[in-house]
Amino acid sequence: MTNFRACLELRLGFEFDIEKTKDNQLVCIHDDTVDRTTSGTGKVADLTLAEIRSLDAGSWFDAKFAGEKVPTIDEVLSLVAEYQHHDVLIAVDLKAEGIEQNIIRMAEKHKVLHRLLFIGKTISEPRVREKLKMASVKAETAVVANNIDEFPKALAAMNTDWIYFRYLPPKKQLEAVRSEGKRSFIAGVTVSGNVPDNWKQAVDVGINGILTDYPLELAATLRKDQ
After folding, report:
1. Is 6 helix (H, G, I), strand (E, B) or coil?
2. Which residues contact 223 (CB under 8 A, 6 or more apart)?
3. Does residue 68 contact residue 75 with C-beta atoms inside 8 Å?
4. Pairing of strands 14-20, 26-28
5. pLDDT score for 223
6. Residue range 3-11: mean pLDDT, rounded
7. What CA–CA distance (Å, rounded) separates 14 from 211?
8. In sequence order, what are the beta bridge partners of 26?
């Protein structure tokens, strides 16, 4: 939560992951186990929310974050709601099964659905996109294009608002995205590192969102080009 708040203070979007506990509560954790990023062990799906909340989820990163807890998704969305006037995009990686209705209702409760872009299982599973759209037509969904040859199928996919590129697309493909009234997002090895030339190329062809491990450097690069 400290990291998410820092991002929002800097007007940066972020990505968060959703897993489901043994007692069907939604929590924000990347792995399907608690082993790597907490003081505990075991699968998220085999632990209750109370058990997971008792763990230290900060010390693995740095001692100054000792005592950080695995947040609930309700807590994450409540935090996003505190920054309603910040124009940021939040990528939601759906990892658990059958949570589409639940996450949409939570987002609507906090009035942040318009800030969310659903990825994870969404980008490759048509049924997940369908369930999200059934829960709300306003849910923003993405479909993946892993390479240039997959682009036509991705562009034609049903129930999609965004094309999720895992390669640097040519300008012609971005023009096609815009002509369909959709938006574009890029992630993966071409942009995740400190790669200013690739970021510039993505921006030049019209990409709407970039997911990188170096957001401050990306922001500085974009400011230089303005």
Report:
1. helix
2. none
3. no
4. antiparallel
5. 86
6. 95
7. 8
8. 20
Q: Which of 110, 68, 66 is nearest to 92 (CA)?
A: 110
Q: Quick one: pLDDT at residue 10?
A: 94
Which strand (E) or helix (H) includes residue 142? strand 140-145
Please state whether the predicted TM-score (pTM) of the whole model is above 0.90: yes
The pLDDT > 70 percentage for the chain reads: 100
For residue 14, which amino acid is it? Answer: F
Other residues' Cβ atoms within 10 Å of the Cβ of residue 185: 22
d(CA 85, CA 223): 21
Residue 226 in this model has a pLDDT that exceeds 70:
no
Helices 215-225 and 196-205 pack at an angle, to 10 degrees, of: 60
- With residue 224 as reference, give the H or E element that holds it: helix 215-225
Note the residue count of the chain: 226
- The single-letter DSSP state of residue 61 is T
